[in-house]
Amino acid sequence: MLAIADTSTIIIIEFELNLKKSKGNEHDGRPVTPAGKVDNTAAREFLTQNLLRRTTGFLYAFNIAPIALALSQTHDLRIANAIDIQSAGSKTRAPLATVKQAIGDLHGVHDVNINEVFRNDTIIDDMPAAKNGTTSLALRAWIAHYVSQLSTMEDRLVQVPPVDTFRLSDEVVLEFLAKSSKDSFQLEQKKPTEVTRQFTTSIDHENNHIDARADRYQNKIRKGRHQRAFIDIGECTGRGFTVDGQVTRSQGRIAKLATTNSLSFVGKTVGSIKIVGRDDPTQAETQRAQKVLEILQGLIDLKHDNPWVQLVFFSSPRDDFQWPSAWTEEANDAGIVKFRADRVARPLNRSQTKAVKQMLQQSNDGRLTVIQGPPGTGKTTVIASFVQTALAGGLSGIWLIAQSNVAVKNIAEKLTDFGLTNWKLL
After folding, report:
1. In the chain, N or C: fewer CB atoms in 10 Å?
2. How close are the terminal C-alpha atoms of the chain, in Å?
3. Which phi and psi (to 5°) does residue 47 adopt?
């Protein structure tokens, strides 16, 4: 669904899939056959001419990039002259911060209400309708219109480049961006909405705060706009109770929590801490979304002349595809880096040595090395040993990529342990 609002009216547009099933019942034996395609040509043309590609005025929306890409991927619709409101607001891109910056002292803002409206910030509104018939989707549309009409936003909004998917003539690029946006959303939905863990805690009695330290970096508490904390408190008498709280600060493995009441923690202990609500996007996720937005705004020209990028991201393998000849040349004997144990800071066992030697191969048969083993078997040590040997042999331009920030952090710490510090963390 998509919501459009002006000063007096909110319109909800509900999209239907092209293919529908007939009214047959698969349980009573009646056949269920697909119906024909719905002819929505007239509706699509009306939507495009009067809204998505209107020649006068602009469309204003929060988080316009995923909306534009969802329209393209799901319904093959494009959009022009669409302004991302957060680009004119707070650097945090939090809707609440943008609304408060726009309104200023004009009106009071109820933080809880704004956060609730934008809790599920997608074009699919799965929240129940309120008693007055409005939904969070409709309210988002009204807020976007209201904020865009404020005089405090006029000069800021005029400086924001409009999103225009019509300018992306390359269908492959648009399809790639849409798929990337959808994949990011699906990964976001897989984040846990409730986590309960034990932490090493200390109590700041002066400020009535709780400091919680995670045993592992991946178990740390991260601050989230839509999170609540439930803290189990124990007393010396053996009784216990739970108090509400929120994460006020998070850095590394340590998080600071404040309770919503003035309860004294003197003589009390902290048990488990339950965090309800998803974490905020990581810095990498935020930057990725920003780059996608800038591409749609025309600020970044997404070139894809690189053969690797073309093959992996923008196309499927073809029978006639060929790598550049320079990429497939095997190193001669003089250019091959030989493994030498004296170049490695840590002693390696036989299997680790074999793995490093295989990674140093530059023949076509040795382009890929798969190393598998349970935790503690020295996989990260093998990576650091390879890097140290490769650098000593004159190789450069080495990229180390992992599936999580924690894995990258572990590799970085191992490199430092090996005395390798001339690298950049991205």
Report:
1. C
2. 37
3. -65, -40
